[in-house]
Amino acid sequence: MTSRDEKRQMKSAARLYAVQALFQMEVSGQTVKAVTREFVNFRFGASYEEGEFAEGDPDLFRNLVEHAVNWQALIDQMTDRALVAKWPIDRIDPVIRALFRAAGAELTQMDTPPKVVINEFVDIARAFFPEGRESGFVNAVLDHMAREAKPGAF
Would you say 76 and 101 are in contact if contact means Cβ atoms under 8 Å apart? Predict the structure, then answer.
């Protein structure tokens, strides 16, 4: 049986993989089906010379990627409203754009508490940009998006 801590780690890994998959889809033009199959079959828990990949929650991963793609227009509009008027989503770093889409999918289509979503995706931003100020930027935008998506949670 999986412990609560292991389940939480698998969900965190699934969120990270969803950001990576959405980024990969954007830069390569791959389909949702191809990318999700690749990640679940070859990355979740895989061992390579460079190291090991964490085991991820495949259901959460698939839901995040599919919802991010299916609801992309809504999520992008929500993200644009959270950004400065002269800085639309198509001008931001593609990794952060993928992160906003995955987080937006979870905020708008799932029952995860907004504070959990914000904390998880800010941690992902720190993983991708350990030296930068991106995590603060991500926190501010996600807070705005969460308040719009689930105002009753605040």
Answer: yes
Chain mean position to CA 125? 9
Quick: pLDDT tens for 116-136.
999 999 999 999 999 988 999
- Residue 107 CB neighbour total at 10 angstroms: 25
Q: Is 54:43 a contact under the CB 8 Å cutoff?
A: no
**DSSP reduced 3-state for 111:** coil
Coil/strand/helix, residue 11: helix
Could you tell me the pTM of the whole model? 0.92
In angstroms, rounded to a whole number, what is the distance separating the alpha carbons of residues 154 and 150? 8
Q: State the residue range of the domain holding 36.
A: 4-153
Domain of 123: which CATH number? 1.10.940.10
Both tokens of 16, joined, read 């990270």
Q: What is the pLDDT of residues 89-107, one digit of tens each?
A: 778 899 999 999 999 999 9
Residue ranges of alpha helices (H) inside 43-113 are 58-70, 72-82, 94-109
Q: Provide the pLDDT for residue 100.
A: 97
Q: What total number of domains does the chain contain?
A: 1
Helices and strands: H and E segment counts in the chain? 7, 2
